[in-house]
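Work Package 3 committed the consortium to producing structural models of liganded targets before the mid-term review. Because experimental data for this complex are still outstanding, the team generated a predictive model from sequence and the ligand definition alone, so that downstream docking and mutagenesis planning could proceed in parallel. The input record is reproduced below exactly as it was submitted to the modelling pipeline, together with the SMILES string for pyridoxal-5'-phosphate.
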Amino acid sequence: MPTRDQVHNFAAGPSPLPGSVLEEAAQGLLNYDDTGMGICELSHRGKEFKAVIEGAEADLRKLLSIPENYTILFSQGGGTGQFSAVVLNLLSAHRLKNPVPAQEFKPPVLDYVLTGSWSSKAYAEAQRLTLPPFPNCPAFAEPRIAASMKSEKWTRLPRKDEYSFSKDAAFVYYCENETINGIEFPHDPSNEAAFPFESVPEGVEIVADYSSSFISRPILNIEKHAIIYAGAQKNLGPSGVTVLIVRNDLLVDTTEASKLGCVPHTPITYEYKILADNKSLYNTPPTFPIYVSALVLKHLIKDKGGLEGLESTNKQKAELLYKTLEAAEKKGKARLVVRDENARSWMNVTFTIEGAAEEEKRFLDGAEKKGFKQLKGHRSVGGIRASIYNAVTLDSVKLLCEYINEFCT
Ligand SMILES: Cc1ncc(COP(=O)(O)O)c(C=O)c1O
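The resulting structure, written out as tokens with the ligand in place, is given here.
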């Protein structure tokens, strides 16, 4: 039976967490802060948990330099829950800004940028939620595609001239890092593949799914976003909690919007305003995932050099792995899935092993024997995916590179 230090875990999520944090969390699970009770046995309204959640919020604000006019929320329902919540809350905000009589209300456009599986799922959910409430009446909104790389099998990002944004959309939606396909927007704004913030029409809100790149490096143009969200289970903590960063003017009363008509109703646990008014404690929150996330944040600030340190290590890890795979590709032994190097994710490195069909299995079996775990690509696309989130060390990546070099000679 392997021990933790004999294993290099490249899982795409849930993913590895720092060992020191897990040891502290294990202790807190049994006896939190000498209370004689575990963290999961304490009231979410007691002073102990209040300190945990407030600490997590303050550390996150500090780590990501989140401006004061944004509220941080801890929610449930995962990234998938936010595919829905974003539509419901922003359509309510849009309706409240346009309080014309129902007969005069024009369903707004929702612009989706499709760069892989997760943005496509978010788009499908927007289509579903905005269907007309009954036959022969207008839809709640008109989701449309502002750019799509589907025809190129998600192997690159759109060029700046390939976007077509609508002037009066309620929002534009993009996924910063596509976990399954291994595609991430580059952070240099002058890069041809960078997200074209400058082309989004004035007044159109911008929403970003940061689930798999959250706290791996700074968020580019945080102040240009309306909502940024991320499931915790990649870089932050265990699954079960989703972090939202919402601009304060978008914390709207969705019931008031529903009274005007022409908007879908928002379940109360998904209303951002209710969550904000109750400091993320409207109902029982996932206390353990929030507790572990709070410990991870402290660890990243104290031991990992904050966001600068994380960015620098993550860059090194990604560069090393891509360089190794490029060399293997030149020998005809491997192939990187994302063909445009500008679009290659720092977090999820996707590739295939070339040659006979058994070669991939041989690669994975050999990797497994050496302790390289959970490298199999997502079931929808196959191939191999090495996810190198914050808790995966540079040493683990170096060892994986040695194995790739050995296998691909
Ligand atoms: C980028 C991205 N968005 C959304 C999701 C969906 O998250 P969840 O499974 O928490 O609903 C995932 C899951 O891995 C993801 O990677």
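Reviewers should note the following from the model. The mean pLDDT is 97. These observations will guide the Year 2 experiments.
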